[in-house]
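=== How it folds ===
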Amino acid sequence: MAIRYAKIILTLALAAFASMVAFNNLTDYGSNFAFVKHVLSMDTTFPGNAAMYRSITTPWLWHAAYALIILGEALCALLLAWGALSLWRARHASGVDFNRAKARATTGLALGFVVWFFGFMVVGGEWFLMWQSHQWNGQEAAFKFYMAILGVLIFLNQADAD
């Protein structure tokens, strides 16, 4: 039972994290909007880099990208909370049923990985060259987030027996 409770608690902890990130982005919209604006406009990358054709300088596209990030974070939070509830309800069930109850949490974890790895490392870090910016580089924070998510995803999906 301890392993099942650990899986529930870790899933719930990541649900709380994703909830707080989405909540903070909504209630303090401007702080992280500035981050998105600078990353997409590539205005703090190395001067004269050959990839400036990738920059986005249209304000409505900055807002759309930020909305997509917030939506991904909020959906991740909801799926993880729903997943934790499903796991809680199945905690005394057979191993087969408990393993089946992992689907929503697994989906939430996969979405979180997409947001923080694909969104921040692939798109932000490499396409928009966020790594070149000393002020607007979120790769280290994103790395911490998606590694925590990946660790829980691996642990959660270890098969549970009766």
In short: Residues 2-156 form one domain.
